[in-house]
Amino acid sequence: MRWKRATILDDLLWDVFSHYWKVHRPAYATLFLNSTAHFQHMYWRNMDAASFAIKPSQEEQAEYERAVEAGYTSMDALVGECIKLAGPDTVIVLVSGLSQQPCLTYEDQSGKTFYRATDPDAFFAWAGVRAPYRYVPMMSEEFHLHFPDESTAAECLRMFEALTAHGKRIMNARQAGNEIHASCSVFTSMDGNTVVLNANGGQIPFGQLFYQADGLKSGMHHPDGIFWVRDSARKPSLSARRVSLRAVAPTIVAHFGIPKPDYMALDSVL
User: Fold this and answer.
1) Do 171 and 40 belong to one domain?
2) DSSP H/E element including 70
3) DSSP E strands: which ranges in 97-237?
4) What is the three-state SS of 229-248?
5) In this predicted structure, what is the pLDDT of residue 186?
6) Do 95 and 224 have their domain in common?
7) C-alpha radius of gyration, the chain, whole number
8) Is residue 200 part of a domain?
């Protein structure tokens, strides 16, 4: 099934990670995986249809009902591979800063969707962005633009803020130094013929600038995550209290006997 391709990146990342682990045997190494978060965002509605007003079709259920479960199964297998690779004397930390929950905010608006630029360079040019930039796509509708200096980034911000449809801005954008973090701010279905205006008075149909992503977003972030440590030198235990995400780094540096930097306000939880 096409949606399962997201797990291929996890497998590739694990192959690269395990290769360099075997070659260099580092004292500390990290591996980041994200496919299951994508499945949760896109297919929570299929996993838990009863929570949603907009029900998936039988055809959608046939394909996506077990997508979230498949993500967890795939990642669980990689955790098993990690345990075998590391051996009994290596500390393994499994940490997630977030989990997810049903996204019900847009159920009365036909569900939440998002849009991405069909041709980013053409879109930026039409918006009025003239300075050289480096485009870095991120997750979903978000992207970064890196400029030579702050003034050219500020001019890009002004161009993005001027883009409107039906009198409302269609872009979220903020500046950090010479970088712009931006995204299309349209999250409900938009008629492709809707006219978009730019800072110079130019007009173009929305559908010529953006395409709508497949499916509806049905999972959103929840602040609770997981912090699990496998250390053969310690007896297994379970903490009933929540552990702050900011305690993870102090816990790791304490394990290595490294003095805690001043910017780490919290102490180790182990």
Assistant:
1) no
2) helix 67-86
3) 99-102, 115-117, 134-137, 142-146, 164-165, 168-169, 171-176, 179-184, 195-197, 203-205, 210-212, 219-222, 226-230
4) EECCCCCCCCCCCCCCHHHH
5) 95
6) yes
7) 22
8) yes
Selection from 160, 214, 151 nearest residue 178 by Cα: 151
Task: State phi, psi for 260 to the nearest 5 degrees.
Answer: -75, 125
The per-residue pLDDT for range 200-252, each reduced to its tens digit, is 999 999 999 999 988 788 999 999 999 999 998 888 888 888 889 999 999 99
Q: Which domain holds residue 34?
A: 2-107+218-237
**pLDDT band at residue 191, thresholds of 50, 70 and 90?**
very high
Does 140 lie in the same domain as 65? no
- Beta-bridge partner residues of 212: 115
The DSSP symbol for 163 reads -
Kindly state whether residue 66 falls inside one of the protein's structural domains.
Answer: yes
Quote the CA–CA distance of 205 and 193 in Å, as a whole number.
5
Same domain as 89, residue 185: no
